[in-house]
Amino acid sequence: MTASFIVLALCFGSPAGYLPTVEDTITVREWLTVGPFSVGTREGYIDPLADQGGEEAIRPYEGMEHPSIMAQGGVVRWRKVESEDGALRVWYEDVDVDWDALQAHHGWAGRRGVAYAYAELEVRGRRRTLILTDKVGAFWLNGRMYYGDVYGYRRGKVRTFVPVVLRDGTNRILLKFGVWGGVWEKERKIIFKILPVHEPLVFNISDVTVPDAVRGEVIEGWMAIPLINATEVPLRKVRLRVGGDEVFRRTETVVGFMPPLTIQKVPVRVKTRGAVTTEKDTLFLPVVAEVDGRKVSSVVPVRVRNLEEGFRTTYVSSVDSSVQEFSVLPPKDFHPEGTYGLILALHGASVPSGWVLGCYDPKPWAFVVGPTNRRPYGFDWQDWGRIDPLEVLDEMKRRYRIDPDRVYLTGHSMGGHGTWHVGLHHPDLFAAIAPSAGWTSFNIYVPFFMRKSYIYAHPKLRSIRDMVIREDRAEVFVENALNLPVFVLHGGKDEEVPPIHARMMVKRLKQLGYEVTYREVPGKKHWWDLKGVPGTACVNYPEMMEFLRSKVRDGAPKKVVFKTTDLALNDGIYWVRIDQMEELYRDALIVAEVKGDHVIDVKVSNVAGFTLFPPERWVGLGRLRILVNGHELRVDLKKYGPVSIRRDKKGRFALGRIKHKGLWKRPGLYGPIKRAYFSPFVFVYGTIGTPEETEVNLHLARTKAQKWWYRGNGWVRIVPDTSVDERIIENYNLILFGGPESNLVTRRINDELPIRIEGGRIVLGERTVPGEHLALKEVYPNPLNPERLVLVNAGTDLEGTKLTGALDALYASSGLPDYIVYGKAIRTEGWGGVVAAGFFDVEWKLAPSLGFFGP
Prior knowledge:
This protein is α+β, with helices and mostly antiparallel strands. 16% of the residues lie in helices and 37% in strands.
């Protein structure tokens, strides 16, 4: 590394007992950059630098070469680039990439890539700092990976600060960021700054979640404040106080434990002393944090709104006890005693939910409510993004008089995809849905075919992954819209989400004979206004709004069609429920129809057991005939309630529920790996190994916690294995970092897991998995409390443990099954580096038919 790339950092004092910090903000002026490299959609763990030591170890020099399939000639080289005040523009005008050809042949998937920037920083003495990034997906400091601000939330005034410690001497910095190509890339820039941190504890006020103050109303709810432990030592009993002035009552929360260099977005109560009467447009809420006798203080701006303007409010999520926000536009001439419909309006990518409400005019007949998907990008309204609008709907029903038969779902772009996804999986909740410019699935929108996993992985491995993400494919579940009227809106010249998505869905709905209205507006692109119409035309389209207003839900239709591939996502709609599938993670279908007062005809496929709730509207009491795939069963229906039917040992249908002894898969105790994050969970890092193993376990936990905060606006507690008590075991899923040699909890349960680590080897049932430096991820009912899940992240050695961080489930369409074992080839070949993966069967046992065991 040449001397011109070394920056000298000056240092400044810090509170007694903590490391000092740098004197002022540091920006690196000269960088080496290289790229672009092709990466597949949602495959950011691939390491294009593996040929020269990899992301953790590389020390590049000017002119160093790497292979790249995006550049003509197949090679890219490191070159010098200067930044300006921490902003680095990387435009590959001197790299021969034919972006137009890539776009023409492969669409977005072919144009998508990553690039790198590298610099070295010389520091005298170890120093505490905060790292600020923008449009940087990840960065490595001295070989240790941290997540950055990949989406550039800073543009929305939310800043991502990551606490780190610079070491004495030379510090190696590697940035990884996305590249999409094309002319617009000239205007793109990334930001990397090193900031001083003078206190042990830091507020990130830019990312506070706080409800609006509505004039004439009392605030009594929840807010959340990101706290950063900017030290190398744990902070204990952090006292967080809010309020205490003439407007806000004082409330206090104690954070019992914050591990070193971690971020927690802490929920706290917020209350006003009475109804808000101020004429100001902003109130300022005092916040104070105290630890080790030191105090830090700040103020949180609280927006003041009139009721009719619409407002932000908050709720506590059942997933992780985090505080989430949503926006509400009350009906025109709203009366608290009135009963109203409700329009759930799902925002597009990068769009705050509150901004969406500004596109609608108040409806005399309905609330317009904007959930958040947890973040402006969030989870594509899948997974935790799907849960968010469902929780918001429940919250609105608790607070207001909402007519359950006049609830509607709409959204634009990513929100249009969410409308398809949420609506087709939960059709019984809505009177109608209206996707606008909505894409259907990643497989069609930004295809996966450029993924290394699809190039190198064994076909069965690809099928396992496809089984996990099949639930995300809206086009697969169109049958569920039998009783769900649909209005589809799309611009005829939409280049962002081509109208082929809408046309395909409409065609299928019409083939099924379902109710669908399609409006493809000629000449309109992805987003458009319509002169003279209040709001924005592509979301507040008058005909679409009138379509919604005219629909009333039929809560007990005569005929029900329900198709699913994952009972943990949803196991039933209307008056039918699937209790168990014959083959897990394959499509299950039930079609139930009332044929008369005492006859129900049922056709099922891949269903081992199901339950009917005969609708009183159509079925009379007395002798009830149920025809299941032509086989007749008779029930004496004395009162309305569940009627369960199962396959017996001979494969015939009989009355009664399937009985299980011991463990069995059911909603709430299911797979795959991501389900461990769908109900309250705690991160547990191992401390009983070597100091290096403990540090690796802790770093894995804090970086995943940082990702959960960044992507999911979430809150997760991180605790050492020695602090896991009966209360934690009883109430939480345990996300374990470290194997039996380094994590006390993993050691306690290791012998009772179907896949375990023994003597530095992974044992899968009775088979030993060959290979060195292997990583294991496995979800399973906690042997210490089978009503909760454990997710084990462990390696056969230290390198294998580090590798567990490469794959995680904290993003949409991650595709991880119940267990997966892989080696370092994952970095270059994607799932081609997986040596074992699959699902446990319905009794949580290993099943060869549901898994892959490679050479």
